[in-house]
Design goal:
binds protoporphyrin IX containing FE; alpha+beta; Cytochrome p450; disordered N terminus; about 500 residues; 18 helices; binds 2-acetamido-2-deoxy-beta-D-glucopyranose
Length: about 500
C-alpha cells in the first residue's frame, strides 16, 4: 500500500453529482461553518480555484502527478491548492522535497487518511499509515528487525531463491509449450511474488483456506483478489465527503457499503489465515514468520495483528512487481542496453548462475534498477504527509492542518537535474558528474525517518530476477509495444501487462 493519493483520482460524474447535491443541501450550513482562515502574507502561491470546491474539478483527469507538474510551470516548485476544504501543499523539486521529509520531519511526520483508507487500515493500525508515535516506533522496529532489515533479509534468502527458480521453471514450461508465442510477464512474476509474501507473513505458502464467516473455501487466486486487488482499488475510492468535513452528516451509503464489504472480507480472510497459522505455531511449524514475531510483542489486539500482517502481504505483492515489469519492458525495448547488462553478467559470473553474492559487483544492473525507479517511479506521489504544527518550507510559511504532496514524478523528470529525463538511460549513473549517492537522488523510497522499510527487499528481488532473466534469455518486445508507457492504478503499473518474446540464450 504505497500510494494514498487516490482521493484525487476521481472522474466519476455520479460522484460529482452527489457532491453537488450535497453542497446544495448544505448551502446554509456551509456559509456558517466555512469560516475563512485568514491568509498569511507569506504562504506559497495558490492555484486559483472555485469557491468551496477549490481545485477539485481541475483534478478530474486520473494522473494528478502530471497535472501537478503542469501547475508548477506557472506557480513554481512549491504552491498550494484546495481540495474542497483542505489545503494541499504541492512540492515539485528535490530540494524542497528533502526539506519536508528530512529537515522538517518533526512538524510533518503524520498522515491524515481518507475515509476509505481509515476503514481499510482499521484506523491507521499499520506501519505505513500510523501516526509517528510509540505504536509506530514499536511496529517499525519489529518489521525491520524480523523481516525487512538487512539481517532479516539474509535469513529469508531461501524464499527469494525459491521464487526465482520457480519463475525460471515456469518460463521454461511456457516456452516449451509455445516457442514462438509471447510470454505474459506480469502473471509469471506476480504469482510467485505473492507466494513469497505469504511465506514471509505467515511462514508458509497457502493454496487455499476455509473462511467460516464466508462459509466457503477460498483458492489462492481468491486470496490474491481479496487481499491485494480489491484493497488497491478500494484505496483510491473517493468519498466526496472527505473534501467537505462539514458535510459528513450527508449519507453516502452505497459507497460506504462497498468499502465496508472489501474491508470485512479482507478482515475475515486474514483472521482465518492467522488462526490457521497459530495452530501451526503450536505444532512448532512456521516459526520464522512475521506473525510469530508480532505475537511475541503480546500487546497487540486482533485488529492490530490482522492489519499488520496484511500490510506485509499487500506491500510485498505490488510495487516490486510494478518496477520489475518496467525494467524488463525497457530492457526488451533497448537491445543495446540488454546486451550491455548481459556482458556484465558474463564478465562477473562466467558460467555460474547469478546469485545474490554477485549483486554488489553488478554495477550496471544496479543502475538499471535505479534508472527504472527514476523513470517509472512506482509511487509517483509520496503518500500524503500531514502538517501538525506551523512550519516553513522553501522559505514559505506552511500552516498546521495542511497536507503535503511530494511529486516524485516531477522531481525525477526535471530537466535541470536530469539530462533528457524522458530517456531511460541507466548509464547516466555511471557518467562523470554522478556519484554513488546520486542513486538515491530519485527518492523513490521516500526519505528520512519514514522512508520505505522494504527497499532492501525490493532491490534484492528485482535485481536478482532481472539478472537471472537476462542471463538465461534474450528479451524482445511484441511489435507495436514500443511506445506503450501509459500507467494505471495506484502504483503506476503499466497499463497493459507486458507480453514479451523470450528466447533461451543457448
Ligand atoms: C520498488 C518498490 C517500493 C517502492 C518504490 C516503495 C516506496 C515507498 C514510499 C515512497 C513510501 C513512503 C515513504 C514516505 O512517506 O516518506 C514507502 C513506505 C513504506 N514501504 Fe515501501 N516501497 C516499495 C516496496 C516495499 C516493500 C517490498 C515493502 C515491504 C514488504 C514496503 C514496506 C513499506 C513500509 C512498511 C512503509 C512505511 C514506512 C513508515 O511509514 O515508516 N515497501 N514505500
Ligand atoms: C516541475 O516539474 C517539471 C517536471 O519535472 C519541470 O519540468 C519543471 O521545471 C518543474 N518546475 C519547477 C518550478 O520546479
Amino acid at each position: 500500500m504505497d500510494a494514498f493519493i487516490g482521493f484525487l483520482q476521481n472522474t466519476q460524474p455520479v460522484v460529482l453529482l452527489s457532491m453537488a447535491v450535497g453542497l446544495l443541501i448544505a448551502g446554509v450550513f456551509v456559509v456558517v461553518f466555512h469560516g475563512r482562515r485568514h491568509l498569511r502574507s507569506n504562504e506559497p502561491p495558490a492555484v486559483p480555484g472555485l469557491p468551496l470546491i477549490g481545485n477539485l474539478l481541475q483534478l478530474k483527469e486520473k494522473k494528478p502527478h502530471q497535472t501537478f507538474a503542469k501547475w508548477a510551470e506557472k506557480y513554481g516548485p512549491i504552491y498550494s491548492i484546495k481540495t474542497g476544504a483542505s489545503k494541499l501543499i504541492v512540492l515539485n523539486s528535490t530540494q524542497v522535497a528533502k526539506e519536508a521529509m528530512v529537515a522538517k520531519f518533526s512538524s510533518i511526520s503524520t498522515r491524515k487518511l481518507s475515509k476509505a483508507l481509515t476503514i481499510l487500515t482499521c484506523d491507521k493500525k499499520m506501519v505505513a499509515t500510523s501516526d509517528y508515535d510509540d505504536f509506530h516506533k514499536l511496529v517499525k522496529r519489529c518489521i525491520i528487525t524480523n523481516l525487512l532489515g538487512a539481517g532479516a533479509q539474509k535469513q529469508l534468502r531461501g524464499h527469494r531463491d525459491v521464487m526465482v527458480s520457480n519463475m525460471i521453471e515456469n518460463l521454461e514450461t511456457t516456452i516449451k509449450e509455445n516457442p514462438s508465442g509471447a510470454v505474459n510477464f506480469r502473471d509469471l512474476f506476480k504469482d510467485e511474488l505473492f507466494r513469497l509474501a505469504l511465506k514471509e507473513a505467515l511462514g508458509q505458502d497457502i493454496e487455499s483456506i476455509y473462511v467460516p464467516e464466508l462459509g466457503k473455501e477460498l483458492t489462492k487466486k481468491d486470496l490474491y483478489n481479496v487481499l491485494v486487488v480489491d484493497p488497491m482499488t478500494g484505496a483510491i475510492e473517493v468519498d466526496w465527503r472527505d473534501f467537505f468535513p462539514y458535510l459528513r452528516w450527508v449519507p453516502n451509503s452505497k459507497w460506504e457499503e462497498k468499502i465496508q464489504r472489501m474491508a470485512s472480507n479482507k478482515y475475515v480472510v486474514m483472521k482465518a489465515l492467522i488462526n490457521e497459522h497459530k495452530r501451526r505455531i503450536q505444532h512448532g511449524e512456521g516459526t520464522n514468520s512475521y506473525l510469530k514475531h508480532l505475537l511475541s510483542l503480546e500487546t497487540l489486539t486482533e485488529e492490530h495483528l490482522i492489519s499488520l500482517v496484511w500490510e506485509v502481504i499487500i506491500e510485498a505483492s505490488d510495487t516490486t512487481a510494478v518496477i520489475t515489469e518496467w525494467a524488463m519492458y525497457q530492457l526488451a525495448k533497448n537491445p543495446d542496453r540488454q546486451d550491455r547488462l548481459y556482458d556484465e553478467i558474463k564478465e562477473v559470473c562466467g558460467t555460474e548462475k547469478v546469485t545474490e553474492e554477485h549483486l554488489p559487483q553488478l554495477h550496471y544492473l544496479n543502475c538499471v534498477f535505479h534508472e527504472t525507479l527514476r523513470r517509472h517511479s512506482p509511487v509517483p506521489i509520496v503518500p500524503l504527509r500531514f502538517v501538525h504544527e506551523d512550519t516553513q518550507l522553501g522559505g514559505f510559511d506552511i500552516p498546521a492542518e495542511a497536507e503535503i504532496a511530494i511529486n516524485l514524478y516531477a522531481c525525477n523528470m526535471n530537466k535541470e537535474e536530469w539530462a533528457e529525463p524522458d530517456e531511460w538511460r541507466p548509464e547516466r549513473f555511471l557518467e562523470g558528474t554522478h556519484e554513488f549517492s546520486d542513486l538515491y537522488k530519485t527518492m523513490a523510497f521516500g526519505a528520512g525517518k519514514r522512508a520505505c522499510a522494504g527497499s532492501i527487499q525490493a532491490m534484492l528481488i528485482t535485481c536478482i530476477s532481472i539478472a537471472r532473466f537476462v542471463q538465461g534469455y534474450g528479451w524482445r518486445l511484441v511489435e507495436g509495444d514500443e511506445d506503450k508507457v501509459d500507467t494505471v492504478q495506484l502504483t503506476a503499473q503499466r497499463l497493459q501487462p507486458l507480453c514479451v518474446y523470450v528466447k533461451p540464450r543457448k
